[in-house]
Structures are given as C-alpha cells and as structure tokens.
Automatic annotation (TrEMBL):
It comes from the Bacteria. It comes from Thalassobaculum fulvum. Its cofactor is Fe(2+). This is Phytanoyl-CoA dioxygenase. Gene3D superfamilies: q2cbj1_9rhob like domain. GO terms for molecular function: 2-oxoglutarate-dependent dioxygenase activity; iron ion binding. InterPro entries: Phytyl_CoA_dOase-like.
Length: 273
C-alpha cells in the first residue's frame, strides 16, 4: 500500500489566482499546533513585558528594542517571521526575492478593542514602487464578533492609493481613514480564521476591522514582506513618521533579507541592526 502523501503547504494555482484577482487569500495550510502554542505563550510574555504599551497595535515585536513605542520585543518574533512555509507562500505571490520590513501584533483585547479604520496599507508606508504582501497569522480565533479582518475584494486592482483623511481618535487603532466615497462597505468580506490559520493580503487592498465587542481576545501577528525590486526609502519614511505623530520608526527600521537578493540595490540592511 502506498503511504498517504503529505499535503503540500504551497498555494495551489487557484489560491494564487485568488490572491491576484481578489487581493487576498486564506491558504489551506495552517500552523502546526505546537508552533501556535509557542507563539501564544510568547504573546503572553510580550504582553507582560509591555504592560504600558497599547495592546491594539504593538509595532515590531521582532526587534528587541522595538522603536518609538519603546516596545520590548524578542528574537522569537523574528523566528515567527521566518516560518519556511509562510515564506514559500509569500514567494509564490511576490516573487523569490523579498525582505521583511515590519511586524505588528494587533491584540484586540476583549470588550475594549478599538476599530481599525478602512484603509489601504500603502498610505502609511515609505516603499517605492509600493509593494508588500502581509501575512496575518491568527493567534486566536478571529470572528465577526471579536473583530476579524474585513476586506473589500478586488479593491487592490489598478494599484491606486485612494483618498484618506487623518483622524486622531482614541477609538481608532490607525489614524488614516479611507474617505467614505472611496469604497462600498456592502462589498466587504469577513476573514474568519481559526487560531493557526493565516491570510495574505496585498498592499493596495482596502481593509479594516470592527471593535472587539465580545468576551474573547482577537490577537493577530502580521508580517510585512516586500519584493526587493522596491526600495524602502528611509528619507521619505522620516517624513511619514512625522506626519503620523512618530508612532512608528521608519527611518531607523532594520530590514531583513528573507529570500534571494536585493534586486534594486538600494535597500540598506545595516541601519537598525
Ligand atoms: O488586525 C487588524 O484588525 C488590522 C490589520 C491590518 O490593518 C493589517 O494587517 O494591515
């Protein structure tokens, strides 16, 4: 009798097409239970070590001294940004040469989580040409009740940054909100995930999430990968940093080559290390 073949983690042609056509995909592959448990334990440690930092968005836990929030990160989160199966899938949608430029834990505490306004990620980022695939890894189950990610399928098409307005509100996790006439919320799709599943989304995709009104936390760890044919422009990053109230450190941000080589030859892998 033939041994049962182990199912490949690689995206199927249909999943790749889904990513390119709709701007996101939920792969069939999921994290092994033991790895998920380690990440959840490390999340507990991260929250304990950073009692003073908002749980709604903890920037760059993969950097030991994580920048402008004063976050105390750890190398464990860098390891979790290097999960080989995830990197393989990212390479399938953005090509074999890419780097990691950021991570965030969106913690969405039970009951009190803030709203993530509708936005396109590109509005915030100093990457030219703009390109990134975000891998959003569910550390808890993510449901409509606890504020799962919501996306507008196909809104990435045309690679157009739509009009946003700055809103500095204590009820919002991010401060750039897409203008209401730039999208139709009736088209939104909920990305419902079990803990250990992930979604991949394109930098131009319109997305957001509702507050967590449930009794269950909804934490996700997102890793940002850009093809090295693009440039992470630190000068422009310093301007964005000022505009955003210095919430994140783009100018001094460390970059990690994940796969292949630096195709544009302008990315600096020494700053921040
Ligand atoms: O976790 C969320 O609710 C928002 C995540 C998000 O905006 C992103 O990963 O780009």
């Amino acid at each position: 009798m033939n041994a049962p073949s182990r199912q490949s983690h690689l995206l199927s042609p249909e999943e790749i097409e889904h990513y390119h056509e709709r701007g996101y995909v939920v792969p069939r592959w999921r994290l092994p239970a033991e790895l998920l448990q380690r990440m959840r334990d490390d999340l507990d440690a991260l929250l304990t070590a950073n009692a003073g930092v908002s749980r709604d968005s903890m920037f760059c836990p993969h950097i030991v001294k994580g920048g402008t929030q004063g976050l105390q990160g750890s190398n464990a989160w860098l390891d979790y940004a290097r999960i080989p199966e995830v990197l393989d899938m990212v390479g399938q949608v953005i090509g074999p040469d890419f780097l990691l430029w950021g991570t965030t834990v969106f913690g969405k505490p039970a009951g009190t989580g803030k709203r993530v306004p509708w936005h396109q990620d590109g509005e915030y980022w100093p990457i030219r040409p703009l390109a990134t695939c975000s891998a959003w890894i569910a550390l808890d189950d993510a449901t409509p009740e606890n504020g799962c990610l919501r996306v507008i399928p196909g809104s990435h098409k045309g690679n157009r940054l739509r009009a946003h307005t700055q809103k500095d509100s204590p009820d919002l996790v991010l401060n750039q909100e897409l203008n209401a006439d730039e999208y139709d919320e009736a088209e939104a799709v909920d990305i419902v995930l079990e803990a250990g599943q992930l979604s991949l989304h394109d930098v131009y995709l319109v997305h957001g999430s509702e507050p967590n009104r449930s009794t269950k936390r909804r934490a996700g760890y997102v890793c940002r990968y850009m093809p090295t044919s693009s440039h992470f422009d630190r000068e422009y990053g310093a301007q964005l940093q000022q505009r955003g109230g210095n919430q994140v450190d783009f100018a001094g941000r460390a970059l990690w080559l994940m796969r292949g080589r630096d195709l544009c030859g302008k990315n600096d892998f020494t700053v921040g290390h």
